[in-house]
UniProtKB/TrEMBL annotation:
CDD domains reported in the protein's UniProt record: SDR_a6 (cd05267)
Domain NAD(P)-binding: 8-188
Protein name stated in the entry: SDR family oxidoreductase
Source organism phylogeny: Bacteria, Bacillati, Bacillota, Bacilli, Bacillales
Amino acid sequence: MARVLILGANGEVSKAAINSFLENTSFTLRLFLRDANRLPYYASDRIRVREGDATNYEDVSHAMNDVDIVFASLSGELDKEAQYIVKAMKEKNVKRLIFVTALGIYDEVPGEYGEWVKQQIAEMLPIYKKAADIIEQSGLDYTIFRPAKLTQMNEVDYEITQKNEPFKGKEVSRKSVAEVAVNIAKNPELHLNKNIGINKPIKE
């Protein structure tokens, strides 16, 4: 039975992933966040909580004990967090990483929406791109997510674009992003060493 470490477990994408893992797998989950009191109650004996700070290497390294797959949905100093994740995974011989960044880091979003994206997160884009570069150069078995604007829609409806392709849609549900993560955890060869955009298809 696989053991999945979820870094940034109190984030909305992570919460969607937790629910999807509980509903669609028998995996054990290790939830990592600063304050366990912020987590909602999960009626499951498959959950273990590990408190810590993703910008503290010792905390990240300790969290890697006894896990098989890492799902990271973090914010802030994402480049520093990426460095620590890579270092700790190598130290603990954990290979499979799913790492969430943001759309727009390669100027891949066309048109007016692309301009809006750049205006909204301009200060963060270089940091998120650096984090993606660190993951791509890590030698780990990674998949990088670049989701569109996230919604709380109760739906699974998405399409995938590759790093060298223009981004297509404008939004995607967190539930859809979670499903992609769960599918990768169940089939680690899926999207292996890929940097993928995730969006809801635009209906013609």
